[in-house]
Amino acid sequence: MMRERPLRVALLGCGVVGSEVARIMTTHTDDLTARIGAPVELAGIAVRRTGRVRAGVPQELITTDATALVKRGDIDVVVEVIGGVEPARSLITAAFEHGASVVSANKALLAQDGAALHAAAEARGVDLYYEAAVAGAIPLIRPLRESLAGDKVNRVLGIVNGTTNFILDRMDSSGAGYSEALDEATALGYAEADPTADVEGFDAAAKAAILAGIAFHTRVRLDDVHREGMTEVTAADFASAKQMGCTIKLLAICERAADGRSVTARVHPAMIPLSHPLASVREAYNAVFVEADAAGQLMFYGPGAGGSPTASAVLGDLVAVCRNKLAASTGPGESAYTRLPVSPMGEVVTRYHISLDVADKPGVLAQVATVFAEHGVSIDTVRQQGKDGDASLVVVTHRATDAALSDTVRALRRLDTVRGVASMMRVEGE
Amino acid sequence: MMRERPLRVALLGCGVVGSEVARIMTTHTDDLTARIGAPVELAGIAVRRTGRVRAGVPQELITTDATALVKRGDIDVVVEVIGGVEPARSLITAAFEHGASVVSANKALLAQDGAALHAAAEARGVDLYYEAAVAGAIPLIRPLRESLAGDKVNRVLGIVNGTTNFILDRMDSSGAGYSEALDEATALGYAEADPTADVEGFDAAAKAAILAGIAFHTRVRLDDVHREGMTEVTAADFASAKQMGCTIKLLAICERAADGRSVTARVHPAMIPLSHPLASVREAYNAVFVEADAAGQLMFYGPGAGGSPTASAVLGDLVAVCRNKLAASTGPGESAYTRLPVSPMGEVVTRYHISLDVADKPGVLAQVATVFAEHGVSIDTVRQQGKDGDASLVVVTHRATDAALSDTVRALRRLDTVRGVASMMRVEGE
């Protein structure tokens, strides 16, 4: 009982991901048709410049007029893999206005304007799906939004950026510094020419905003996410981490506060114990832990980026959205009913690892310990190493608010006997 | 725009899982209502005996007449957590006939009668969901059925039974024998009084059938799954595994044949390298690898059983099924369009680890090697250890068909110089 007219798909963007989507759609047509329950057809592909279209992409479908393609009137689904805020936002909005559902891989746009886009989709009775926006092929949005819909998620903790994980993994295994590891990542194609979005944590922060919103059924925007990049992580930090039985990862962490009345979302480098499963996530892989009341601790692991894995996520969404079209229904939309506010970083409860360069004379440890005590921060371990009149002091704290911890560090810097704070890093995953 | 009449849910079974479903439904009503988009109400709970109903379960909802509950006429969703084939099958069928969707955790029933149940659901335009039937809280059915709907899955490999993983983990870490480790598992509540379904691999085989069917879009029944239990795994096997840098796990393996024309599904103990992520899955945890053309290698990890994790999966399905009811639509049903046949175990391509007790005299190795060669099985490594006129020979093969490998073992047993085959185990995950 297949319908005659095929579902028509407009593809916006034909780079690494888009060309793979086009390739699979044109070579696996029978499988897609069987799984959707109706034939599906690639109706047009919008690109910025026609000159650079890849081999295997049907040239007759190429257009540079994305707006005209979206407004054609016979498009059932728009697949947006351009990235960036504009023109993606205008094109997606136009797609909704013309009754098309949208599958997007655009984390930046969703982290900034997710609520408005969801509202626009809902107003037109169409779908907005974006599994590919977070962690490539790893199913995360759907498990959080659907599989855990009857549970209460308390924490999402993960590695959601492959570029930075590749760099940190190289620094860990080879002892290389940041620039050297970045050069290698660039040479191998893991880092872009301008790596800012990755290494400064913008990409991970956008994903954290999306995950936190879905996990806690509230609105979390990119601006709500505390973000620290990993460009200042040094070989010395890795050496310190090793002494503690840890490694360093750039983590995205979304948490429900202990009293349940607010949430936090943050991205920063952190030490995690080597025994933690995230410590063994190598190269450009991603992995995300989800902790929920009833389900307990779940982990999802896989390739977090790349043309094929991202295309897999896009096509999974495409099948779902097409099925919904056929059933004249829509999938779950935005769920933000808890309206939980996002607390600032100062309220996050965590642990610090602090390396201090201090004068090697009696009483220094007592002075330092007093500063911690005055700020209500309790010390877990101290390690002291002397050399030539100077000494280093490595302090690992118990859990305290990030505000108390950073106030402590500020006060330490003011001590005469403290020559400098060599490094300071949060410790997670224990 | 909430509808007035709540969605009514009948719960069949109120043991470890059912009581947790009832508890969450009655304590998290507001969350469920918000996520479904309409109020949901527990309308009745069918139990076998009223005497043993747990604390916290609303006593006024208890009935011993499951059939009458299902046929009441105002039930929107039936949640079946009784387990076993009958009366579950009749009750589910009656639920469909009365227009109710069904959420089930019943792997045995689904592995045996999945196709008929799907057809019955489809005929009535209702849903049959069963995320909880495989690997407890770990989202697997939904990712395979929906997230990977645009991809081609080639392999599913995993630990899907917590009881046997607990036993094998204990044997590995403590050097205990099977019976001793089983006793510990029983004492700690990880194994049932009659552990047959777990230790003989029936439970894992049912899950393998369900996963293979969904992964390859074909029909795979319990009888199609090659099944070997783990009761004969010895401390000596673990010692051999360690010498190879391996451990032993009971694995469920579903594969598409290299030529793409058939699939296989099997459950048996196997050696896997310690470097493989499945090797570090401890205690009663489950973990499943999924390999797909575009997505690459994905892993899903979490608690594979237990009341709360299973209830989480059941409630996720309940929310989905209720949403579908409200939208007057249904989720994806059975997808078996590829009609790929299931090949017998003999056609599986794998590797063997074989320990032989042989006479310690010249020429034995040559004899043994000849038998392998005659069966077209190529040897990867041989290790020979002599003691008091006897010797042991450990052979690890390259990949060959299971038929060729077992023919080889049969021929080896017939050699005069081979006193016995001490153990024989497949090697996977390389």
TrEMBL record, chains A, B:
Single GO MF descriptor: homoserine dehydrogenase activity
ACT domain boundaries: 353-426
A matching Pfam family: ACT
Required cofactor names: a metal cation
Keywords, in A-Z order: Amino-acid biosynthesis, Methionine biosynthesis, NADP, Oxidoreductase, Sodium, Threonine biosynthesis
Source species, domain of life: Bacteria
Pathway membership: Amino-acid biosynthesis; L-threonine biosynthesis; L-threonine from L-aspartate: step 3/5; Amino-acid biosynthesis; L-methionine biosynthesis via de novo pathway; L-homoserine from L-aspartate: step 3/3
Protein name: Homoserine dehydrogenase
NCBIfam families per UniProt: PRK06349.1 (NF004976)
Catalytically driven reaction(s): L-homoserine + NAD(+) = L-aspartate 4-semialdehyde + NADH + H(+); L-homoserine + NADP(+) = L-aspartate 4-semialdehyde + NADPH + H(+)
Enzyme nomenclature, EC number: 1.1.1.3
InterPro entries assigned to the protein according to its UniProt record, in alphabetical order: ACT-like_dom_sf (IPR045865), ACT_dom (IPR002912), Asp/hSer_DH_NAD-bd (IPR005106), HDH (IPR016204), HDH_cat (IPR001342), HDH_CS (IPR019811), NAD(P)-bd_dom_sf (IPR036291)
Family to which this protein belongs: Belongs to the homoserine dehydrogenase family.
Free-text function comment from the UniProt entry: Catalyzes the conversion of L-aspartate-beta-semialdehyde (L-Asa) to L-homoserine (L-Hse), the third step in the biosynthesis of threonine and methionine from aspartate.
Catalytic class of the enzyme: oxidoreductase
CDD domains xref list: ACT_HSDH-Hom
